[in-house]
Amino acid sequence: MKQALTASTVFSLLVVFENLQRFIKAIFMYWTRALAAKVSFDRITDFLNNTELLDIYDAPSSTDALRWGSTSAERDRVPARVVFMVRVEDKLSFERGCLNLVTGPTGSGKTSLLLALLGEMHYIPLGPSLYFHLPQEGGVAYAAQESWVQNETIKNNILFASEYDKARYKEVLHVCGLEQDLELFEAGDETEVGEKGLTLSGGQKARVTLARAIYSSADIILLDDMLAALDVHTSKWIVEKCLAGDLVKDRTVILVSHNVKLVEPIASSVTVVQDGKISQYCSCTPVPLTKLPEVLSDDTDEGNKDGGERVNSESKPDGKLVIAEEIQEGRISGRAVKLYTSAVGGNHAVFFFSTFLAMTVLTHFMGVIQMWFLGYWAAQYELPGKVPIVFYLTIYVAILVVVIASNTGTDLLFISGTIRGSRRIYEQLAEVILGTTLRWLDKTPTSRILTHFTQDIGSIDTIIPEWAKYAVDQMMKLTFKLTAIVTLTPLFLILGVAALAAGYTCTQIYLKSQMSVKREMSVAKSPVLGHFGATVTGLASIQAYGAQEMVTEELLRRIDKYSRSSRIFYNLQRWMAIRMHVISALFFGSLTWYLVYVKKDTASNTGFLINMPVLTFTGAIFGWIININMLEGQSVRFVIQLYFVQIEQEAKPTEQGKPPAYWPASGELRVENLSARYSPEGPEVLHQLSFHIKSGERIGVVGRTGSGKSSLALSLLRCIYTTGEVIYDGIPTSSMNLDTLRSSITIIPQVLELISGTLRQNLDPFGEVDDLTLNDSLRAAGLTALQDYFTEDEDKITLDTTISGGGSNLSVGQWQIITLARALVRRSKLLILDEATSAIDYKTDTMIQTSLRHELTGATVITIAHQLQTIMDSDRIASVLFSIIECH
What we know:
By secondary structure, the protein is an alpha/beta fold. A hairpin with a 2-residue loop joins strand 10 (about 270-275) and strand 11 (about 275-285). Residues about 55-65, about 75-80, about 285-315 and about 325-330 have low confidence and may be disordered.
């Protein structure tokens, strides 16, 4: 203690403490990463250890029937899921080589029965000698109720994991009624169906899924209510030409359907499912599909000769729908940088950045003064006389306080700016996505949007601000420390310029490759997420077809593409880092030799000069270059965000577009010369439609699958490009704000959406309606009558029942009933039902239609349906044929 504070002691301690500082920073940085890694490993381990596995209960193969002993099957009880259970009290068998029909009320367990047959539910034997056996050696084909298609061409969706056989392929297209549909696509069967089959109508998706099952060589075919998505004529064609045709010869078909009257004549057995139990099993006279009697009508060509279809979106000659993500060449544009800086700076960007730079300058200036003062303090011990330690210590502490205060203020200011910038960019991105056109959403995969909302926004939230702050800090360090060093040693300027020139040359070589590779990485990640999402959605179908290996290979191919670009990106970083370290070592060695052997100076000045370049300057100069490169690589996110904020937008609301407060007072609708298309350059899907609907009138809309019925509903809401006039309650909708128009009309689309939460939240997300009204709406929608089949109270759905994301814990029929109840809660003057009851049994559907007429007195109802029973209660019926409407 009480030793002299010499230059050697001061600058040696500086080296030690700076290294210690780096070590402590690294500990905290890598500790958080280690915790994140542990959480990820724990989740993966839990998933692998607790994943539901298939139950295997083998039994001797039977050549005459598929038998199921007295058993029950269920899915596990997990949060936000209702237990699905199907119970077989006695032996259940399906005839081989025949069509077996499964029917029952909505929500009774028909789909669960098929899933149990596929092994997607846990098998629970009710006795020691009971068994379940579904032969797998001949293969199983499965067409789900919610048609699953890949983002591929129509042809690839049909072939799936099978080899291409031209004759068989053409025959499958014929019996599935797809020939006319393909003629209307410019690219034919090479047309991409888009994500979730968005270019196809519901009926077209159902028939593509059916064609995939029929084309496969599987001995067993499971079809889940695919007739519900088809019109009467097409359904008849499918039954006569496909289900009773040669392509299903010697194959076992298990068909779930409410259309018993149409299918029963060719069915060898009818199984009735009620409340999850096989309550009635009717074994009819076996009608093998190889020897069908004359039970079908003679007008077998009627279904396929009915009016042509209109495709629900534009098809390009090459069949491509999804637009490829652009990979921009060159450096980051000024507009992209301006997008970020304006978001960070807010309304007073000049003041913000001026203050930030001023505080940063003060911080680093005082940092240089701090190190110089230590050298000056140490030099005082070389002079005669006593050194006033308290005086120098007070000054040093004051300098430290200024450094800490300015550094803290700079960090707080920058953090507030980055939070503001991230929030503004996210809000801007969300606004343009929510305000874009339906066509753009059709052309852009959801996985790509999710990538930008997660990966890109994540970089803008964390990585880019961190590196931007570091780049500014390093630049200030370079400026002040270079100035200080050059002042004491002018020769250092030559070495510094030489090092900068060498670093700049390497940087230019590096950037030419690095920017393109980084953009390629961003583009390559979306297909991985998209394929994975599609795989999870269609997992039951993939497992049924035994296509796990094919799907896995495709996923690995996409991952390999991303990994290759990622590996190149990080290898380029290593290439750059090696050259920076070599230049830094040469630079430091030359400077040290000069200071020790050439320049004669005091110990304090020599220590100051060596510590400035060694500890900070050499690391700063090359760290800054690398950081700028990395920052520019990450700034690809700005380019992507800039592209997104420039996408096509729907019309913004204006003051002139607001209707009177009393509007709408009635549901009168007048349409004059309405034409519609899905894109400005695309073909018309509706042509010169004109009709008038009086307030309170109920109109049924029918037409062949793909004829434009859903397009009519979208055109009334201005979701697609339209010409002509639509007058709703006396006001042209073209002059009205879109949010006002759409909030005044209630539509139940074919593709239903339910949010994760309680049933109450799904019916009334804003909490504006009391429980009595909600229960009345559920009763009017048919839920009460439907639940009369349930004997257990715990199986019944109430307002407090938890609905999982996408309604995965409900049957499709229950989805439709809940969305119908949600529409009733809104009490709109105009209600559009687009196949709102297609998955509901006839008895419940009849009750719903009667209830709707009573509940919606005074409201105009447009019902789009394939089932004639659904629209028989309408005042008038409009048929859509070749995009032309005729009212009867």
